Amino acid sequence: MRDNGRARVILALLLLTAFTLVTLDYRSGGSGPLRRIGNAVFGPIEDAAAAVASPIGSFFTSLGHLSGYKHDNENLRKQVQDLRKQLRLTDSDRAHLASMEKLLHLDQQAQFRVVAARVTAVGSSLGFESTATIDVGSSSGIKPNETVINGDGLVGKTLSVGPSTSTVLLGNDPNFHAGARMEGSEQIGHVDGGGRRPMTFTLLDSQGDIPVGTRLVTFGDINNRPFVPEVPIGHVVSVQPPNGALTRTSTVSPYVHFSSVDVVGVVVAMPHPPARDSLLPPKPTPSPPPSTPAARPTPSVTPTRSH
Amino acid sequence: MRRPLLAVAALLTALLLQVGVVNRLRLPGGHPDLVLLALVSLALVGGPTYGAVAGFAAGFAADIVPPADHTIGRLALVYALVGYGAGLLEDAEERSVLAAVGVVAVGSAAAVVLFAGVGALLGDPRVDASSVGHALAATVLYDVVLAPFIVPLVSGAARRVEPVAAY
């Protein structure tokens, strides 16, 4: 034990500074200059770290797969190792390419103008927020409050934007809220990220009916910020009983796996609004329960309704 | 003067590994807190003043590193207190690894509770019984599992660069 007056004075000063920081940032609503400094300073480092981390990761995976080969001589072993490493890298490249193609597919259907990006960092210490850093920023034309999508549907929206990186609020964060529309109808409501609980959809009309399996798309906001219309969100898996409430609430299974997003696109412009319900994946087949991963629909074109 | 440099290197590495690698692993429940592990290791060698200053600096960096999205200053506050507390138990790590693991366990639990408490005062919608419960259990468990490896490593390095504590 070694405590003295000086240590206590310094701790008191530090705590006072921290409280001041909290107060200032809270009053500025999280849009103060410190966040931008953090983006500008740490963003490029995270970029570089992600570039280093992924080949090292795949290298160690390939080494793990090599452990079975023991009978061969040193030369052959090295050859196998090199080949395995190549195979691993092409595997990850192929996965990257596939998600990129999926994104391009949705992008072309919708005529969104999309800036493609990769996720370089996720979350924070102590892990309460569901956010991600992506490797594009204001130099690529990204602004705060823009829709982020991938080949499966809605990923989230941009928060703060640095020169070469941006922070994305993912759809499963409790701070995430978006206007949503039920497919094939004018019924609107809002989806809310639930954190550890599932995503919910609340229908504004208390008399309205939410059939299980209904697919939801974004409703779109004024000037398409933060959300452009018609982006698939997910489908309804269960509906809570009304209990005399003014709104109906249901549980939603989102199309995007938020914990494993990698390739995403930021919608920077939308010259023509897409046709109603044109971007939805095919309807899940009614026989299996909708929550199983096998029932997850793959995106493709569904018959479109004209305006 | 070499120990502050080591602290910067250790805490920055921990922070970047946390957001770039650890948080992307799909572990059940939650994630270990590498910054807290590095901080406790350093404070156990450097003492309360060193721990408080290192904790504040690490917390402030963790507050502004993207993609953090909570009120800036929350982690600085929490880690300054944890660093100070661990510094009061200076040299516990030298006596036994078990004592160091105990400090890590208490420090992790305190960090989650304090962080959630300040969040609740500020009306953070991310703080609720379920998220705090999960974060508490996962952070303490994973940190305790990692402590026997990380604490001797970082504390040892801190002791080697400056054998006689200057604080």
Mean of the pLDDT scores of chain B? Answer: 90
Count of separate DSSP helical elements of chain A: 3
Oligomer: heterodimer
* Overall 3D shape of chain B: globular
Indicate the CATH class of chain B: Mainly Alpha
Order of helices and strands of chain A: HHHEEEEEEEEEEEE
Distance between the termini of chain A: 75 Å
CATH class of the domain at 175-256 and 272-295 in chain A, please?
A: Mainly Beta
Helix content of chain B: over 70%
Strand content of chain A: 15-25%
Low-pLDDT segments of chain A: 60-72, 288-307
Low-pLDDT regions of chain B: none
The end-to-end distance of chain B, rounded to whole angstroms, is 11 Å
How many strand segments of chain A? 12
The order of strands across the largest sheet of chain A is 1-2-5-4-3-12
Largest sheet of chain A: 6 strands, antiparallel, barrel
Mean pLDDT of chain A: 79
Which descriptor suits the 3D outline of chain A? globular
CATH fold node name of chain B: Arp2/3 complex 21 kDa subunit ARPC3
CATH topology name of the domain at 175-256 and 272-295 in chain A = Thrombin, subunit H
Count of domains of chain B = 1
Description:
The complex is a heterodimer of chains A (307) and B (167). Chain A has 307 residues and is of the alpha+beta class. Chain A has a domain at 175-256 and 272-295: Thrombin, subunit H, CATH 2.40.10.350. Helices cover 31% and strands 24% of the residues of chain A. Chain A has helices spanning 5-27, 33-66, 74-110; strands spanning 113-122, 131-134, 147-150, 153-161, 166-170, 177-182, 188-192, 199-203, 215-218, 232-239, 248-254, 263-269. In chain A, a hairpin with an 8-residue loop joins strand 10 and strand 11 (248-254). In chain A, helix 2 crosses helix 3 (74-110). The model of chain A is unreliable at 60-72 and 288-307 (pLDDT under 50). With 167 residues, chain B is mainly α. Chain B has one domain (2-161): Arp2/3 complex 21 kDa subunit ARPC3, CATH 1.10.1760. Helix content of chain B is 75%, strand content 0%. Chain B has helices at residues 2-20, 34-46, 48-64, 74-88, 92-95, 97-121, 129-161. The chains are: A alpha+beta (307), B mainly alpha (167). The interface between A and B is large, with 64 and 66 residues.
